[in-house]
Every structure is written in C-alpha cells, then in structure tokens.
Amino acid sequence: MNKLITLGLVIGLTGCALLMPKEVAAENIDITGTVQSRCTVNTDTPGVYGNPNAHTLTTLPASAGQLPIVRVDTTLANAYNAIISYPTSFASSPSLGDTVAWTGAVAVVQTSSSDMSGYQAGSTTTGAARTYPLSIAGTTWFSVASQATYGGGQNKAFPGGSYTAHVVAECIAQ
Amino acid sequence: MTTPILGIPTEEGMDISGVIYNYKVVKDVEDDFIVTVQNKDVDGGYIFQDTEDWSGKHGMRIQKSIPLTYTPIEQFGDGSIQTTGTGSVEDATVLYMYRWDGCRNPQNDENCPGYVEPMPVIPKIEIYDALEDENVIDATEETDSDLYEKKEEEREETDEDEEDEDRLELAMAASENALTIANTATQASLLKTMNAATNVTSYYVANVPGGVYNESISLNGGKIVDNKKALKSLGQDKLMNKMIEEQYK
After folding, report:
1. B3 min Cα distance to partner chain A (Å)
2. Is the complex ipTM more than 0.85?
3. Are strands B61-72 and A100-111 parallel, antiparallel or unpaired?
4. B153 vs B227: CA distance, rounded Å
5. Which of A33, A104, B88, B156 has minimal Cβ neighbours within 10 Å of its Cβ?
6. Per CB distance under 8 Å, which residues of A are interface residues toward B?
7. For B5-105, CATH number?
8. pLDDT digits (tens, 9 = 90+) for B103-153
C-alpha cells in the first residue's frame, strides 16, 4: 500500500513540470576593437622664454630664448590636419594686474620628404592657431614662436617669478 | 655634381640597420634640384640610394630615416651626397644606426659559441751570435797583407837608412884619425895572428907515441943507504927560516 502512494506522487510531480510556461533568455555580447593612432604628436624640444627687457618674454634665440619644436607623425596621407597654436595666456605666473599682449607664429622647420615643402604655403590661420593639412605620410616638425609683452602698451615690468605657457598641438582627422 | 665622402670606421661585428640623414636645401622654387644620399657596396653597386627631387619646391630642411636590413659594416663602401641642378645642400649630417654582434668573431669572448682557446704566445728569445756581432766582425777582420808588408818594408828601409847614417857618421868620425884606424887595423891583424899561433887545435890532434917505460934501475946489494948530507941541508933550512922571520920582528 505504501508503494502505490509513493508512485502516485511521482506521477503527479512530473505532470506539473510539463504544464509550466517556458522561461525567456537574454544576453549582452561585447564587441571590442582597437583603432591604432595614425597620427601622433610629440614634443621634440621644449621652449624657453628669454627676458631681453623687463616687460618682454620671448622664445626668440636672439633674446636668449628657445623655440619649442613639435613633431607630428602620420602614416596615412590626406587623413589628418595638424593644428598648432601659440600661447595667448600664461598657464602659471605671478599675479598680474595688467594686461599681457601676445604675438606668435608657427612654421614648418623640417620635414621627412621634399614633397612636404609646400605645407607652410598651404596652411591657414585662425587666430593663434595654424592648420596644416597633412597630405603626405611622414614626419613634420613645427616650431612655435611666442612673445608676451606686459603693460597693455605701457611697457610695464613683469613681476618677478616663474612663468609658464602652453603650446597646443593637435592632430585632427579631416 | 658634388660627391663629398662620408667615412665609416669599420669594426668587425657591427651591423648597420638604418641611416638618418639631415640637410638643408637652399634654392629658388623654380629651380630644378635633385639630391641623392647613397652608400656604395664594396661588391659593387649601392647598398642604398635615397633621392629627393626638390624641383619646383621650396628649399627647406629635411630629415629622413632609411631603414636597412642588418648589413655588416664591412660591406659599406664610400658614402656620398650627390646633387644635380641649381641649389646647394647645407648643414648635412648622416647618422648610421647599428647593432653590435659581439660574437661575430667568436674569439672576442670566451662565452661565444665556437670560441677556441688561443695558443699561448711563445716569447721570442734573442740568441746572441758572436759571429754576427759587428764589433767582433770588425776585430777579426783580416788585415790587408799588402798594406802591412808595405809598412814592414818601409820600416826596414828606415832601419837600413838609419844604419847607413850611423856607419856614415862612424866613418866620418874615423876619418878624422886615420892613424887610429890604421893602428886599430894593425892591432886587430896582430891579434888575429896571435890567435892563429895559439891555436890549440893542433894539441887535440897531436899523436903522443905511447908505450911502457920499464924501470931500469938495479940495486946492487939490495939496500939503499940514506944521504948523509941531507941532515946538513935540513939544518941550513932551519937557519934560513929563522933569519927570514927575524926581519919581521
């Protein structure tokens, strides 16, 4: 008797499983990829400000300054623009109560191919920035000259201290 | 066309993997100008040649890297920057990238495969050979016999001349006393004669007739009587001796 009861319970449980609704599955699958940079920007030579007089800081070598050199490498032609800007403000300096007038220039100083000799002529300027279409794969070196004059035209002496300015160099896809 | 030479010192085990060159082109845009940086291969031809055509382009500074497969530096011949056209190259530098294979010659390092223990260097010993010594050669050099004999003859002639001079002087001195010379000659002749007379040779050759002289005395009666006058004679002798001694007293 006990045997029959046990068997009936087993059949009953099996029948319940067959009658239940099916469960819904969902999965998020990752897709990964890496884009190798085909344009890189590196500092070739850091810049130094010379102080030819009390109210001027300049990177010109004639005034004991040093021109910063930026190197841009691209392995893909006609794919990037190099945008180089001379500074228009100090990143760090003593407290300045008067205005600083900035001037500067960006130029191609060296290339890895004679075919790049037209880069300077083919560049355009927007404010302090100069844009170079990199039409040839290779390396281009840019120099960035900058000069800061203190006093808003009154030629005031810069306060003593440490001054730092940044050159911005970018490689932006066309 | 200009071809400045780029010298490369060669070291065994050095491989060149690339070249970086840098120069500034000075030219007008409209001018044609071609610059070739190259390096000869010792087996002929060029290991690399890199040409930039600056025709119709702005002159500026260029820096270029030329990758090469690892090439033994012994393979590199003369290098040059060759230009063609109107323009010039200024401030040129050429850098060779290299790696060093220290075991190219296994003998460079005992840890290199194929290293062979070198044979010890045997010092060279200088052996002194007296026969090769210049001083000995000079000392043992044969004298010139002709020159030597000539000197001997000259010396003998000098001696003879001196003897002649002595004789002459002697003769001249002797002539001052001819009589002395004559006497000397006479005396010499006399002595010679005397010596001839006293020649003892004849004594050695004399033959003495030999024989036996037998005693011919015969004693009559067989008795020899003493001489009686002898004692008297002895007395006279004693007296005589006494008289002689008296005179010294």
Report:
1. 20
2. no
3. parallel
4. 87
5. A33
6. 108-115, 117-118, 120-121, 139, 141
7. 2.60.40
8. 888 887 888 888 888 888 888 888 888 888 888 888 887 766 666 677 777
